[in-house]
Each structure stands twice: as structure tokens, then as C-alpha cells.
Design goal:
Length: 280
């Protein structure tokens, strides 16, 4: 099957229905980033396809908050009939953000929440038939994508260069044995902003590389990341500095040493980290 270019959906309304170009393919991952509403009793993610007699749901994924302890129901709707339910614990928290990954393998859907594996759900309907994702009920969506896992080192072009007001958002998980991970904003001749987490030194180093040498390091404070734990980093570019936010909380500020923002055209991730999603 051809590897089709699937567009991403930013801040779609609920209920959300999105076509999966080319259908589901082995080795690719659905990524859903959002927030459970504070008053949620449930929400639903369905992977489905139309049939001559209606709609089959290959994967019905439904966190419940209203029926005893919070839990998740997995099921399949085939030819108008539900199969036996499968259940798991619920890592979602009302009012809190989440990243849900559904990775497609030959045997099953591998489901992870916030970078941690939750469950395997074996196929009851061939995944190649699935052509639509539906998300509805008590949830707010920030992003929905269907893509291959990102590889490290990771590089992305910044169209038309960096500018004040631009945000770069990274979702990921440092691997359990991670010693270092870094984010770089690069230009043709150097690195405008180098942000490196050194787990073995319990330090986050900020610096600039230009004219063939590194400048003075900034490294106050301890490492705010933990190996094996999900993070969301946002790097916000302002007119005279960068702000760095971790899981919504500002943790660092770095004044521009390289001021030709329009020349900064590459964002890079290196180190021992699993990348879930990068928005450049």
C-alpha cells in the first residue's frame, strides 16, 4: 500500500470525524492530544469504516468516570453487534491534558497514554478496512495526527525562519537509561539556542554556538525532567528572549545572543528520547 501524506488536525471541534488517507497501515501511529473536561463522565475514540449495512467499529476506546472507579472499555462493533468488552485501568484525569497513541501492528493496536503503554487490543476486524477516526463526548482536542514514529536525531525546517510570537511544541519521553537530550534552534553557521538536559549532572545547559565556539553556559537549577516520564516542552520566541515551558509551567528564560531570527531555519532534537509529536 502506498504511504499517503496524511494531514494533521489542529484544535478540531467535538464531535470530530477525520478521514484516514489510505486507511490504517502497519507501523504507523494515531496521536491524539487533548484535555479531559473537568465535568467529564466519559469520552470515546472510535476507529471505524462504512459497510453496506452501516458502520463497523474496529476499535471502540471509551474511558468512563461515572460508573464506579474510572476505567476504560475496549470493544468492537461488527455487523451491528458488540463483541465481549475488554477493560483496563484509566490513566486519564478529569481536567488534565493527555497524549493518546494508538500504534498499529499486524496483531493488535498498541495503546499508550502519556508515553506509557496501557494495553494491546487484538484485531477483530482487519485494520486495513479502517478509514475514519471519530472522537466525541467530554473532551477538548488540541491535535490529531496519523504518522510514522519520529526518528532521532530529528530535524524540521522552520518555514520563513523564526520570528517573535512563534512557538515550538515537543511531546516526548526521555528513555529510562537517558543520559542526555537536547533541543537546538539552528541557523546556517551555528546554533542560536542550545537547550541540553544532562541527567548525569542534574543540569539543564543553555548556550549559543557561533563563530566556531560555544559561549558562556547558563545552567542554574536542577533537571526538571525524569527518565520514563512524559513531558510537553514549549519554546516560545519573543523579541529579545526565549521562554521555555514544561507541562505548562515556565522553567527557563534565555536572552537572544543571535538576533537575526529570520536566519534560524532548523529545529533539531538529539539524544536518548522518544519523540511523540513536534509542532514547528
Amino acid at each position: 500500500m502506498a504511504d499517503c501524506q496524511q494531514k494533521s488536525f489542529l484544535s478540531p471541534d467535538i464531535p470530530f470525524s477525520g478521514s484516514l488517507l489510505g486507511g490504517l497501515q502497519e507501523g504507523k501511529t494515531l496521536i491524539i492530544i487533548g484535555r479531559v473536561l473537568p465535568n467529564a463522565d466519559k469520552f470515546t475514540v472510535d476507529l471505524q469504516h462504512a459497510t453496506g449495512c452501516g458502520t463497523d467499529i474496529a476499535l471502540h476506546f471509551k474511558p468512563h468516570f461515572d460508573d464506579g472507579p474510572a476505567h476504560i472499555v475496549f470493544n468492537t462493533l461488527k455487523k451491528g453487534s458488540w463483541g465481549p468488552e475488554e477493560k483496563s485501568a484509566c490513566p486519564f484525569v478529569k481536567g488534565q491534558p493527555f497524549t493518546l497513541e494508538i500504534h498499529v501492528t499486524k496483531e493488535a493496536y498498541k495503546v499508550s497514554v502519556n508515553g506509557k503503554h496501557l494495553a494491546d487490543y487484538k484485531h477483530r476486524i482487519p485494520f486495513t478496512l479502517v478509514d475514519t477516526i471519530l472522537v466525541h463526548q467530554m473532551v477538548k482536542l488540541d491535535f490529531v495526527a496519523y504518522q510514522k514514529p519520529a526518528t532521532i536525531p530529528y530535524k524540521a525546517l522552520i518555514s520563513d525562519g523564526l520570528q517573535s510570537g512563534k512557538d515550538i511544541v515537543i511531546h516526548g519521553v526521555p528513555k529510562a537509561d537517558s543520559k542526555r537530550m537536547e533541543f537546538n534552534l539552528r541557523h546556517r553557521f551555528g546554533i542560536a539556542f542550545h537547550y541540553q538536559c544532562r541527567f548525569e549532572e542534574n543540569a539543564v545547559v543553555r548556550n549559543t554556538y557561533e563563530n566556531g565556539s560555544w559561549g558562556r553556559e547558563e545552567r542554574d537549577g536542577a533537571v526538571p525532567f525524569a527518565p520514563g516520564q512524559f513531558f510537553q516542552i514549549k519554546i516560545s520566541c519573543n523579541s529579545d528572549h526565549y521562554d521555555v515551558f514544561l507541562n505548562g509551567k515556565q522553567i527557563h528564560t534565555y536572552k537572544h545572543r543571535f538576533t537575526k531570527l529570520e536566519d534560524i531555519d532548523v529545529f533539531e532534537v538529539r539524544g536518548n528520547v522518544e519523540l511523540i509529536y513536534v509542532q514547528v
